[in-house]
Amino acid sequence: MRNRVKSIFRASLFACLLLEINVAGQTPEPGPPQNTPPATVETKTTRTVPNVPDDSSNGWSIGAIYWLSNGPADLVAGTQSTNPAVQNLALPRFKKQTPGVRITTPAGKYNRLEISGFQTQTTGASKTAIDLNLFGNPFPAGDTLQTNVRVRNVKVSWNYLMYPAPPTSKIRFKALFEFQYLSARTIVAAPLDVNAATATGSRNVFLPTLGLGTDIVPSSHFRIEVKASGFAIPHRSYIADAEAAAVVHAWHVELVGGARYYQFRTSPNSDEYIRGKMFGPFVSVRLLLGK
Questions:
Q1: Average pLDDT for consecutive 10-residue bins of the chain (291 residues)?
Q2: Which of 35, 59, 117, 159 is paired with 198 by a 20 to 30 Å CA distance?
Q3: pTM value?
């Protein structure tokens, strides 16, 4: 009996050992394949700026201007006048041809710097209705006055393209950052009065002027320019400047025709000050350099 139990125990032990070896030798079957998420690629959008050539009008150029200006002017008593009633005089109207010049230079791509100027001079005669005192010189009533007025202007203007930049559309908007100098000189004489002295007075204006401009460019050979600028100091001097023109471009030459309005006042903080308006058509010829 004891021998039979030993035989059964030995057989069970052998079977367990054999089963363990068989299980250890088996390779586990691979599971179902796992999906790997694709790698995330970051996409960056790069803005491409079109390479638009600059306008030839933004380069070097020199031009002459012929302005048929017209308008009134006055000599007016200022705030420092002790007797304002005798210090007012209507000056001759601006009815003279006004020559001018304009030079342009590049000022950054699609921008330009303009240096321009004009001078006008007019003369007229009048008779005094009351006693006058002009620039410290007396003129009795009944004197025949010979009056000469000269106005000079120099303007430096940076034409900055605001929209679109680069200029890819036919309508473009510009900002005008300017500085203007104006000199108004008046000479009053009474040639028939041997006792009267010639009175001379000059008044100057130095002002920054700011403005906007619009260019309409239907083709490379034709465009329309409209711009206006100005600046005023309360109870002091002011300048208002506006013009509109059509420009025809052919080869190295531009032909310009349009109209201009210009208004100014020197500072009233003096014995006398000068104010005036000038308006009328103008023509210009510009020679484009380096194009």
A1: 49 47 48 58 59 80 97 97 96 92 94 97 95 96 96 98 92 98 98 94 98 96 97 97 97 96 97 97 95 58
A2: 117
A3: 0.81
